[in-house]
Design brief:
InterPro entries (chains A, B): Bact_HTH_transcr_reg, Chorismate_lyase_/UTRA_dom_sf, Tscrpt_reg_HTH_GntR, UTRA, WH-like_DNA-bd_sf, WH_DNA-bd_sf
Strand order of the largest sheet of chain A: 1-2-3-6-5-4
Pfam families (chains A, B): GntR (PF00392), UTRA (PF07702)
Oligomer: homodimer
GO biological process, one term (chains A, B): negative regulation of DNA-templated transcription
Radius of gyration of chain A: 22 Å
GO molecular function (chains A, B): DNA binding; DNA-binding transcription factor activity
Structural class of chain A: alpha+beta
Keywords (chains A, B): DNA-binding, Transcription, Transcription regulation
CATH class of the largest domain in chain A: Alpha Beta
CATH topology of the largest domain in chain A: Chorismate lyase
Helix content of chain A: 25-40%
Number of strands of chain A: 8
């Protein structure tokens, strides 16, 4: 719970924050039931509707079971991933206790081909800045990263040493607005280029994460393609019966970009 | 919005439901801003805090942008996936407009090996029911499915023709409680067995989805391994800055099961 926003929290949010902290601190262990609604009403001196809103919030986060017809229980925790960790390999590594690294192959300004122009919503052949890096986890090859930016955002990278750290941080520091992102996850075989950098045979299965990031106004600011060695990263998610629609969906082939 | 629960909806939930429907119906198109908070307060005759709760709910679902410092905009819609669609390939196909199919390779009762016993939280060598099927999308090979159940749940499948339809529906009809599930997504090469069924070369990259399903009390009722041809399925997700922790996380290799 951030200090800044605390004053504006709704009561149900405060209760959710208390319960979330109690779960994270192990006061309620995985598999254990939470206190009953009646008990929580007494403890927080509030109405049942407010307690139910707090429980619905925790369910949305995949922290507790459905509670349909019985007490909600704490689920095995899926570590949460911050927005920074979604966009930035560096941030994701740091929050996972891993030392990130990179070996930049090239940074280039070039005209966008048709596919990239469509992904970035810019005219064909408009200039883009592209970065190709091998990423390391604790010094070991883990991922090949292809980042592409329209020139307005990308110009901040042309004057940056991409071996010195996080491009994402550089963009934020330069005032680039990165508001939301869409990721598509699938599997792909290593190309000759991928294989040489990752030190595996060509065709080795890789976990591919394609990402488009947008400003608050919906203008694309990044189109990227990350390919992980399968023993280096996976995705995990909880789903709870009766929950609201989740923000992740499995998409059939014809619908995927 | 289900008819049953409508009477118990909080006001913010009603407003969220109205806005969700308006987005789904195209009244607010992707890229367009939602009305201002002041306008929504007037329209729904409610307080600003309530409108903010409704907006936070939509943001949690990946439907609108962060709104930090400006109006929230409608994002490109990620189709929502129901809990049924998470557990059941049959349900997922139907909701995607695809005709599901299956060719059962075998159904067997056997003793659990150590890995499966651990996943199902049962003693080593305790009996399990296992199903191995090729799954089809519109008549074409798409996925190899390995399902495993402890005997108490699995007994309902031994007396069922697995080529006749959904095992998940059979389990629900038999009163098996499936309350929540955890999925792990990664990439794997096709084994000889996978490759023969999917009609691709051995080692072809496949999108693997391993799933554990649990009762409301947290007892495992299923441990499964689905492997999709990469052109048949992918995962897509929205992430929004400043949002609550999402229920999906990228996990580094050592932490993944």
């Amino acid at each position: 719970m951030s200090q800044v926003s605390e004053a504006r929290l709704q009561q149900y949010e405060e209760i959710a924050a208390h319960l979330r902290a109690a779960i994270r601190d192990g006061e309620y262990a995985p598999g254990e039931p939470l206190p009953s609604e009646a008990e929580l009403c007494r403890r927080f001196e509030t109405a049942r509707g407010t307690v139910r809103q707090a429980m619905a919030t925790l369910r949305n986060e995949g922290l507790i079971s459905s509670g349909q017809g019985r007490r909600s229980r704490v689920l095995d925790t899926v570590p949460s991933q911050s927005f920074d960790g979604v966009i930035s390999f560096t941030q994701w590594c740091v929050s996972s206790g891993i030392t990130p690294g990179q070996q930049t192959q090239w940074v280039t300004r070039r005209p966008a081909d048709a596919g990239l122009a469509a992904a970035l919503d810019i005219p064909d052949r408009a200039p883009v800045v592209s970065v190709f890096r091998l990423r390391l986890m604790d010094g070991t090859p883990a991922m090949v990263e292809r980042l592409n930016y329209p020139l307005e955002a990308g110009q901040h990278i042309l004057s940056f040493d991409p071996d010195s750290g996080s491009i994402y941080q550089r963009l934020l520091d330069s005032g680039v607005d990165i508001d939301h992102a869409t990721r598509t996850i699938d599997a792909v075989g290593a190309t000759a280029e991928d294989a040489a950098l990752l030190e595996v045979p060509e065709g080795t299965p890789l976990l591919r994460v394609r990402r488009r990031a947008f400003t608050g106004e919906g203008t694309p600011v990044e189109s990227s393609d990350d390919r992980y060695l399968p023993d280096k990263a996976s995705f995990t998610l909880n789903s709870i019966r009766g929950n609201n629609p989740s923000s992740v969906s499995m998409i059939h082939g014809e619908m995927a970009r």
